[in-house]
Amino acid sequence: MRRLLTLTFLLALPIFTISCSSGYQGYMTRSYTIRGTHYQPMSVNQALNHSEVGIASWYDESSWLGFKRGNTSLGEKVQPWHVSGAHKTLPLPCEVKVTNLENGKSVKMRLNDRGPFIPGRVIDVTPRAAKKLDFHHKGLTQVKVEVLSVGDGKYKRKAKRKKRFLIF
């Protein structure tokens, strides 16, 4: 039985490691057009100081064992356990902190896709992220999105946040 479990783990390991990386190098900042609307992503420097408030929604592009309806803009597969999201104009990949303004819950997530392409929405998140933010049952919520870093590996640049001091 132990051999069978070990063999199963060794056979499944490549599926999990392959689904977590895209091989994408640098930052995705090229412009694009969707449904007749042109989008120009921010520069890396603009994004490092970016925060915004708006409506978040969730979308389910994932599936079980790697079979899915497509890949993210970076070519990554989305799995049910991922906490990730989509944004129209931030450089990809990007790490953000999303705070649900209705209940105060927040989560850090990787942005690796473009969207949402519905007017008035600022970010789409995966179902797991929506559950962590406690709005999966509602579908939409008011959030604050703050950029923490842009890029991966040697390309990663962290945001410089202004320090806030409390004076008594």
TrEMBL record:
The lineage of its organism: Bacteria, Pseudomonadati, Verrucomicrobiota, Verrucomicrobiia, Verrucomicrobiales. Its EC number is 4.2.2.-. Belongs to the RlpA family. It comes from Rubritalea tangerina. Its main location: membrane. The keyword Lipoprotein applies. Residues 52-145 form the RlpA-like protein double-psi beta-barrel domain. InterPro entries: RlpA, RlpA-like_DPBB, RlpA-like_sf, RplA. The keyword DNA-binding does not apply. This is Probable endolytic peptidoglycan transglycosylase RlpA. It holds the Pfam family DPBB_1. Lytic transglycosylase with a strong preference for naked glycan strands that lack stem peptides. Keywords: Cell membrane, Cell wall biogenesis/degradation, Lipoprotein, Lyase, Membrane, Palmitate. It is found in: Cell membrane. It is a lipid-anchor. The gene is rlpA. PROSITE patterns: PROKAR_LIPOPROTEIN.
